[in-house]
Each structure stands twice: as C-alpha cells, then as structure tokens.
Amino acid sequence: MGVSQRRGSSLKASFFVGTLWLLWMIITACACPKVCHCTDRNGMVVQCTSRNLENIPLNLPKDTVILLLSSNRIRHIPKEAFTDLHRLRELDLSHNVIESVEVSAFRGISEGLRTLDLSNNHLSSIPKDTFAKIHARVRLSHNPWHCECSLQEVLRELRLDPETVNDVSCYTSVQEEYVGKPVIQVLDSGINFCNFHHKTTDVAMFVAMFCWFSMVTAYIIYYIKHNQEDTRRHMEYLKSLPSNSRISKDYDTMSSVL
C-alpha cells in the first residue's frame, strides 16, 4: 500500500471517529429521561411532573431551559444537582416533600436562573449560602419555616416572588408571638431574630455558669460536713479509751479544732 493510500485510510478513520463522537454528543445532549416528557421549544422543556420521583432524574438534556419536577416525592436536593444545565431558566420543585437542600445544590445554574419554585414542601430551615449568586424570583411559600437568625439572613439576600411573599410564614419561632405571621411582615416591623439568638446564647451561658458554681459550692459543703463527722467519730472513740496524758492531749487538740 502506498503512502497516499495509507494517508487516505487514516483520514477516513479519523473522520469516522469524529462523526461518531459528534453523534454521541448530540444524542447525549438531547436524550430525555424515560420517566419524563421532553419538548423542544427553542431549548428543551422537560416535564417530569407527578411521576412519583424520589430523586432528581439523571442524564437530563443539557439544553434544558425549563425543568418541571413538581408533585413528586423528592426529599433532598444534593449538591450540584443541576450543574450541567447551563441554559436552565425555570426550575419547579414545588409540591414535593423536600426537607433539606445542600449549600451547592444550585451551583452552575444560579446566575442564569429566572424562576425557582420551592413552595409547598417540608423546609423548616436552609443553609445561608444555598442561594448564593441566585438572581431568580424565588417562591418559598407554604413551608413549615422556623423563624430565627439564619432564616432572616437567607431571606435578606433573596428576591422573593411578590405574589406569594405573604405566604412565607413562621410555623415555629424563637419567639412564640410570631408563630403564624408572615416572616417579611415580622421583619419589616423591626424585629431582628439575630438579637434573640444572641440573648438566648447569653442566657444559656449564664445558666451553665450558675449550675457549675452550685455544684462546686455543694461539693465544698459536703466536704466540710464529711470531715466534721469524721472528727466527731474520732473524738467519741478517744472518749471511750482509758484516760492517760497522751489521750488527754489528743482530746484537747481535737476539741480546739472543732
């Protein structure tokens, strides 16, 4: 085989491998999970609503622009759950049973996301940096929120959906009087949950110090009483012995101690 023939065969092989690789990339980018329904509308709309899902589907199309995961049984959003979906604009996770969201759950999509719906879940708290760099309109209504300092710091950085903001209420609170009230309404009235946190910490430290002091005092009192009892028993013993000068001296010494 001549040089030109070998070169031609090599080019054909390279072209064939390149074509296969390109085809695989296209298939991967456009693949739709079996449990979902995908529609191309200038980007993929992935419909996974009401499919009894317990986890975020794997191998979602990389050109997904809308991802609908509402009305499932998802409990946890792991870190970097959507990291390859750089074109994602709308993410609906409402009406699940989500109890926890990891700090980096939305890494990779945070800056491009426009709508994030976490309403009607089981969230009571969320890490402060979970929504870092997110500029999306966020829905957090109808969750059993615990109103305290960390929630206040999270909400301060968010752009809450104005239509549902009054449905973000205190299910529990560091102060019972705010239970059942909209969080934003409470914060707008001038309440600072972080001040309650510091006061609670100070009270806990005071109680701990008081308990420690009480234990030390009780031990000292017990130690003194125990020694007195031993001294009395020793004196009674000395009294029961035959009288002599040495015993008398010991008795006088013990009497002076008491």
Notes on the structure:
Helix 4 packs antiparallel against helix 5. With 258 residues, the protein is an alpha/beta fold. It has helices at 3-30, 149-156, 183-188, 193-240, 245-257, and strands at residues 37-40, 44-47, 64-68, 76-77, 90-92, 100-101, 115-117, 137-139, 145-147, 159-160, 170-173. The protein is built from 5 helices and 11 strands. The strands form 3 sheets. It has a 7-stranded mixed β-sheet, with no helix packed on it. 40% of the residues lie in helices and 14% in strands.
What are the SSEs and their pairings?
Layout: H1 3-30, E1 37-40, E2 44-47, E3 64-68, E4 76-77, E5 90-92, E6 100-101, E7 115-117, E8 137-139, E9 145-147, H2 149-156, E10 159-160, E11 170-173, H3 183-188, H4 193-240, H5 245-257
Helix pairs in contact: 4-5
Number of helices: 5
Low-confidence stretches: 13-29, 198-203
Largest sheet: 7 strands, mixed
- What is the helix content? 25-40%
Q: How does the helix and strand content classify structurally?
A: alpha/beta
Strand order in the largest sheet:
1-2-3-5-7-8-10
Assess the beta-strand content as a share of residues.
5-15%
